């Protein structure tokens, strides 16, 4: 069996559809921690080995966080030269459809429980009695796939696994080519890692890469922390909005109840005992109404204050522009008046000079007549 394609949607961290095509030789899925690499492999395993009707806490954990979305997976694979495709949806409206590539298109060959069983017959494995499957249910795959966190191989495999491995491996011999390859591997190992402890050599490309990886991890952790803080703020904001809506609803209900009670009191004025009892209820409701009214008034006052502040800001900005214009105009007027004053002063000097000249003439004439 060989995987050729994988499509995952609404599965843990993958809300939107993610598609992967596997190379005939080798495919590497790389990325930082917690980006979903193991989730993709898990989805392929669930699509091949689990009942589409499986239930339980483990199946519920496949949903994207905080949602009620139904996880979906499509696994395309080859067995014995034939191409197959299994589609599964878990939890809500569970579905399982197995198709085979026939005549240039996919033809449905089984669905429901029959599709689940047929896939196991093709790839090998066993159906769990309940819940999600474990490694022991995965047939030969349990010898080829080691989940993250596993450090040891199973102490014992069933006959199906061992027979398949023996058929695949058959014999191993030592040759000059294998010895040269082993020596090359050892040389490459010593170039990158210390001989004594197997740690990356200082200033080596591997050491720098690991340091960069640690920097990326620190940056990623900081981004996650900031995102969590932002989500908490959004959560508190939603709670405040919800509280305001609840207060407004309580206010409307209290007002309506008060109006209803007042109407009943008005109709029951002739019945003293009933009227007294109703008055107590009205008093309590009036208190509730007053409290809610004050809280609503405070909210409205705050909203009005914000609106007024915004309007005042706009007016001040308009006035500032007008003042700038007025100042520019006054400067122009002042400049003009200064120029006119200078002209007047020159005129005044000219007149005073002429008057002085006339006085000198008059004085000279008086002296002449004497």
Notes on the structure:
The protein is of the alpha+beta class and 370 residues long. Among the domains are: 2-168, Rossmann fold (3-Layer(aba) Sandwich), CATH 3.40.50; 173-200, no CATH class. The chain has helices at residues 37-49, 57-60, 113-123, 141-144, 159-169, 176-192, 205-267, 272-369; strands at residues 2-9, 18-21, 72-79, 82-89, 95-102, 105-111. Strands 2-1-3-4-5-6 form a 6-stranded antiparallel β-sheet, covered by helices on one side. A hairpin with a 2-residue loop joins strand 5 (95-102) and strand 6. Helix 7 packs across helix 8 (272-369). It is flat, with a radius of gyration of 45 Å. It starts with a strand and ends with a helix. The mean pLDDT is 83.
Features:
single chain, 370 residues, alpha+beta, Rossmann fold, 6-stranded antiparallel sheet, 8 helices, 60% helix, flat
What percent of residues adopt helix (DSSP H or I)? 55-70%
The CATH topology of the domain at 2-168 is: Rossmann fold
What is the end-to-end distance? 147 Å
Count up the helices.
Answer: 8
Main beta sheet strand tally, sense and closure:
6 strands, antiparallel
- Spans of at least 5 consecutive residues whose pLDDT stays below 50 are none
Q: β content, as a range?
A: 5-15%
* Tally of DSSP β-strands: 6
Helix-strand category: alpha+beta
Order of the strands making up the biggest sheet: 2-1-3-4-5-6
Q: Write down the overall mean pLDDT.
A: 83
Q: Identify the CATH class of the domain at 2-168.
A: Alpha Beta
Rounded radius of gyration (Å): 45 Å
CATH superfamily of the domain at 2-168: P-loop containing nucleotide triphosphate hydrolases
CATH structural architecture of the domain at 2-168 = 3-Layer(aba) Sandwich
Order of helices and strands: EEHHEEEEHHHHHH
- The coarse overall form would be flat
């Amino acid at each position: 069996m060989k995987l050729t394609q994988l499509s995952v949607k609404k599965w843990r961290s993958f809300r939107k559809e993610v598609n992967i095509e596997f190379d005939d030789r080798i495919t590497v899925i790389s990325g930082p921690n917690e980006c979903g690499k193991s989730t993709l492999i898990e989805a392929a395993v669930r699509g091949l080995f689990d009942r589409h009707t499986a239930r339980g806490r483990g199946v519920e954990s496949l949903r994207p966080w905080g949602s009620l979305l139904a996880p979906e997976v499509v696994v395309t694979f080859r067995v014995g030269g034939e191409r197959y495709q299994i589609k599964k949806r878990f939890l809500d409206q569970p579905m399982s459809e197995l198709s085979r590539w026939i005549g240039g298109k996919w033809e449905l060959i089984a669905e429901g429980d029959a599709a689940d069983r047929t896939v196991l017959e093709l790839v090998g494995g066993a159906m769990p009695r309940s819940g999600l499957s474990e490694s022991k249910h995965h047939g030969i795959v349990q010898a080829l796939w080691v989940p993250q966190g596993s450090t040891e191989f199973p102490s014992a495999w069933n006959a199906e696994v061992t027979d398949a491995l023996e058929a695949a491996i058959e014999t191993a011999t030592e040759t000059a080519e294998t010895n040269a390859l082993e020596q090359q591997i050892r040389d490459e190992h010593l170039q990158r890692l210390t001989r004594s402890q197997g740690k990356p050599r200082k200033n080596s490309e591997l050491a720098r890469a690991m340091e960069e990886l640690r920097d990326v991890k620190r940056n990623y952790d900081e981004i996650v922390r900031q995102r969590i803080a932002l989500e908490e703020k959004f959560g508190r904001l939603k709670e405040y909005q919800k509280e305001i809506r609840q207060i407004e609803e309580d206010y409307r209900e209290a007002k309506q109840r008060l109006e209803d009670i007042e109407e009943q009191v008005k109709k029951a004025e002739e019945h003293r005992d009933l009227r007294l009892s109703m008055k107590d209820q009205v008093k309590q409701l009036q208190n509730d109404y007053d409290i809610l009214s004050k809280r609503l008034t405070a909210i409205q006052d705050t909203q009005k204050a914000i609106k007024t502040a915004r309007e005042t800001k706009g007016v001040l900005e308009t006035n500032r522009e007008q003042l700038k214009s007025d100042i520019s105009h006054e400067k122009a007027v002042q400049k003009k008046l200064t120029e006119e004053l200078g002209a007047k002063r020159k005129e005044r000097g000219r007149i005073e000079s002429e008057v002085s000249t006339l006085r000198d003439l008059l004085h000279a004439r008086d002296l002449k007549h004497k």
